[in-house]
Amino acid sequence: MVPTGSSTLGFAPGKPPPPPPQSQVSMAVQLPHQLGDDGPTLRKLGAMNEPFYLLRELPVGNELTGNTNLITHYSLEHAYNKFCGKKVKEKLSNFLPELPGMIDTLGSQDGSSLRSLIEKPPVCGNSFNPLTGAMLTGFRLHTGPLPEQYRLMHIQPPKKKSKHKHRHHRPQDPLPPETPSDSDHKKKKKKRDDDPDRKKKKKDKKKKKNRHSPDHPGLASSQPSSSSSLR
Amino acid sequence: MAEKFDNLEEHLEKFVENIRQLGIIVSDFQPSSQTGLNQKLNFMITGLQDIDKCRQQLHDINVPLEAFEYIDQGRNPQLYTKECLERALAKNEQVKGKIDTMTKFKSLLISELAKVFPEEMAKYKAIHGDDPPT
Considering only CB atoms, which chain A residues are within 8 Å of B77? Predict the structure, then answer.
């Protein structure tokens, strides 16, 4: 194939060879300059092309990176030690010990969840007005205790935790009112506890009496007949 | 800032206590308790008024929704704070590890390239300068 625009090769004497394609290189270099609209970025690229192809400038460094301890940077050591150094208790009642009621249950069970409050916000904007006498007549109640299904026995405030661990664990629900059978049982228990103490005291008293009596042989030993008299 | 929280907390505690006492009155109602009941009902309304007044002081306070999830599950919301801090620290350590690894890789690569292509690396260092100390 004979290139166009050039003389036949090698057959015509004295004609200079075709010029080397150097303009193509210069054209390539000049291209960034010709496209003046996208000047700065491409000029930079063009400048950075030498001596390495596609060598770009390094990105601007950020002062705050993952190399820094961000807890220290934002002065959160105290918070970190407070929450992560000690054991945080699991239950909500440990966070709100003064709040009465069963707060450790799921909010979705009794419709008291905060999520439902967000999804269905209540009507707001109305003012709070005190109840008048006529309105208060609607709150006249029947005397007597509530029916069983409506009783909320867990409305008493939880008792403060005692420091001594050997004491009985504080129940979530308050103790129900003492029934007659319970009180009798406690009284009986008290009597049982007292009886051996009473017996011992009586035994000791009798021993002392026997020691000081003139009939005593002088031996400090309990007599078998004395125990039978204590009944 | 803590004062407005203390103020709200005080009002809420009084409100809750009032409701608790109301429940006690209602659980075993007597005719003589009617006056007390009416008083408690009006205390409830004034309590709501006081809480509503506190709202204006706290309009710029944002609470993360994830903390609400903990409360709805009956869990201590401080666990959310604890887990946030732990996750932040873990991610911090992870990113620091990546930075350290990449820094070591870069210095190793430069040193090896300098052995193989000393002239080119000299030109590279002339353009970018020496590597900043890590």
Answer: 92, 95
pLDDT digits (tens, 9 = 90+) for A30-79: 444 444 444 444 445 445 556 788 888 878 888 889 999 999 999 999 99
Confirm whether A48 is domain-assigned: no
CA of B105 vs chain A CAs: smallest distance (Å): 16
Count of structural domains within chain A: 1
Which residue range is the domain that position A75 belongs to? 71-122
- B12 to chain A: closest CA residue: A99
Q: Give the predicted TM-score (pTM) of the model.
A: 0.58
Contact B76, A174 (CB under 8 A): no
CA atoms within 13 A on the CB side of A33: 6
Residue A84 lies in a domain: yes
Residue A103 lies in a domain: yes
The answer to whether residue A107 is domain-embedded is yes
N- to C-terminal Cα separation, chain B: 41
- Among B90, B92, B79, which Cα is nearest to A88's? B79
